[in-house]
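Example record

One chain of 454 residues, shown exactly as stored in the release files.
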Amino acid sequence: MTNTKPKKALIVAYAFPPSAAVGVYRVIKFCKYLPQFGWEPVVLTVEHAVSYSKDESLLEQLPKDMKIYRSKDSSPISWYEKKTGRGPMGPVTAPPADSSGQSDKPAPPPPAPSLLGRIKGYLRRSIFTPDDNIFWTPYAVRTGLKAIKEEGIDVIFTTSPPATSHLVGWWLSFLTGTPLVIDFRDLWTQNAGYHLKNKPGPARFYDRFLEKRCMKRSKFIVTATDGFTDLVRNKNPYKPEDQIVTITNGLDPDDFSSVEFPTEKNDKFTILYLGSLYGARNPFFFFEAVEHFLDRRPEAADRMQIDFVGGATGYEHATTGNRLEKIVRWLGHVPQKKALSLLWQSDVLLLLLGFGATHTTVIPAKLFEYIATGRPILAFVPEGQSSALIEKYDRGAAITSPDKDKVADFLEKQFDAWLKQEGPLPSKIDLPEEFDRRAKTRRLAEVFDAARGR
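Predicted structure tokens for this chain:
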């Protein structure tokens, strides 16, 4: 009787449960469904990820016997933050200069840094390439080599951000000859927010060198949107087009098995934002538009509620001292199951992406969940893939330029609908077939098979 060796994939993912960064959901679902398509996942991750919320319940979604190798990380950033008690960001009190159209108010100029501060900033932007997790590399490579030897790995799969994961994969592939597949949940040097890193010229050149090196080494490149795929193909013509494929994010029906539908009408007209706030994904223009709506409908001030669930990184100070202070609630991180129920228990779902052209190819993972609820979506996005998806499923309004009247019109319509409502909103789970996480994983398994055979 022939003993067939199972095919194994080493999944290199810095963000992994119990960390609850948004990127972990894509990885979790791949790990969950890969065994159904003949691939056994083995994970290489970090012991203690920096700056991520935690959700221990996410581990319950993984195969019970899945091997997880966790390595140390000697990031000087985390050491500094622990020693000084200072986080990476302070309070945000005004629209940042990089808001990409999210605010029409200019940000006040930041105080000029000291000479020592400028030197420190230059060194950090130069040395920390491709990102702040670069010091994880030697630990991850050492642990990864152990995993490859002990598990008999057939394919290495790296997913980013952070891009350091791809460097780890490059070294492991180079040292062992194991085929490499890299996955861009977000792009690397072509990322919409890459310019915000303000890297010196030599560091940008080195970053691109590292990116190209990883791409050349890889058998396949996977991206999360068709727009990303087009950008990668255009920037990297040396890579055959059939080796750059799209596997979008999606939805897992199992995630919605314990969703609690509302049993009565909300006491207040409720708008919900789910996810972290950063860069162009900031609430400043939205707050200005809400103020404009309240100028039209002042009675709504006592009858509406705006909830932000996720990392606010200082933005909660933006409503201090104005009439939104009593309307906006900052709920912080909540477990996935609770967060999903909150979607159905809201009257409007808010999506903040910014209006910049660099975001035309981006589809936030939360948009798939928003669409599944059937609730109206208020989206601040450029003309592109996210706006097209909202239009395709007729799920609300895609505001593609900073037009406060359009926002106020939409809010008036939804507020009036809420006033007339006698009971809870009709609730069901609508999972379009094209969003199926299992089908996405089947495609990834096909990529692994092709990479192993090359």
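Notes: The radius of gyration is 23 Å.
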